[in-house]
Amino acid sequence: QQFSFWLQTSPQSSSSGVTGGSEAARRIAFWRYYTRICAVTDPPVTPEDDEKASVSAKMRIAGGTNTRLTAPVAWGYSPRLPDRWRRSSAVEQGNHNPLVGGSNPPAATIQSMIMIAPVHASFLKARDRMRSPHHLAIFRLSAIFAALLSIAPTFAADLAVVTTGALHHMVLDLVPAFEARTGDKVIVTNDTAGGVRARVERGEVFDVIILTVGGLETLTAKGKIVPGSAAPLAKSSIGLAVKDGAPQPDISTAEAFKSAMLAAPSIAWTDPASGGTTGIYLGKLFERMGIADAVRAKSVLVRGGLSAARILTGEATHALQPVSELLAVTGVTVAGKLPEELQGHTIYGAGIGAAAVHPGGAKAFLADLRGEAGTRSLTAHGMTVP
Fold first, then answer.
1. Longest distance between any two alpha carbons in the chain, whole Å
2. What is the per-residue pLDDT for 147?
3. Alpha-carbon gap, residue 60 to 264, rounded angstroms
């Protein structure tokens, strides 16, 4: 435990003969080096003993004490030092480096190692117990565990992203390149605007939150979004889709759109009760145009997901939704966008969750969304930069 604490906190760990490679590699090498040479034994070493001993490394440490070094049976090594380390003169003049090889361990390295091991009676008694198979197994596991703890911060992260349906496929477009570049895994959750807002408000944790600009402002005021992190990302428009090969109705004017809605056998659109931005807008639009009852009678209300998918199942002949979501369904054709006088543009933005587990990764992902790749993707999905 003392060694583990020292290894993680002491500046000596970078000046004790273990150099080069990553921090994790240096720590692992240091553990291997330590378990090879650093167990202290009594009695004192004399020059005569040194000539006779099969293991040796004579080092003068604090107080002018001569102490013999032996190696415990850890990491599968022999309890005796290699022959090339037998002479104290060789130890004192050596240039061994556990990462790059060499013949002898340097005296300064051994001395710095010895100084971290308390030389007292309890340590000397523990030395013999450590040589039992049981204690050696515990020692090995302790060494591995400490090394893993030092490496843990480098593990890849899971980046949690929640988005409204309008930008869902744009987000998915950017995920593969981001994961390949960073090593992080992006977990994308899709919901209606109301659903996203409710999830965040009740405490679900997301690193990146993609929502309507108004929704982001509300969450920021409630302390759910990092102040200053939210910014506009894309502007979407509502369109009308029909099955591939079916007649495409004219919706170029307000009157033409009204006629198309009354003539359509069935229409799939987002259920306003689900909190979807487009559904709420269309419900109010039909009321304003005086066709709410007629449309409601043949409506297929969709609570999240792609309305145009109901065309493929035969549940509806027409579908209304943001163009980005209509284009995501293969087998349907976008007949056009609502005329400008009826259009319900929605501006979406993205911000970092106040409870984000990986704010650094969130910031990097937002940069991708707002960068060139993000712009190409939103354009391909029928959206524009606000």
1. 111
2. 56
3. 96
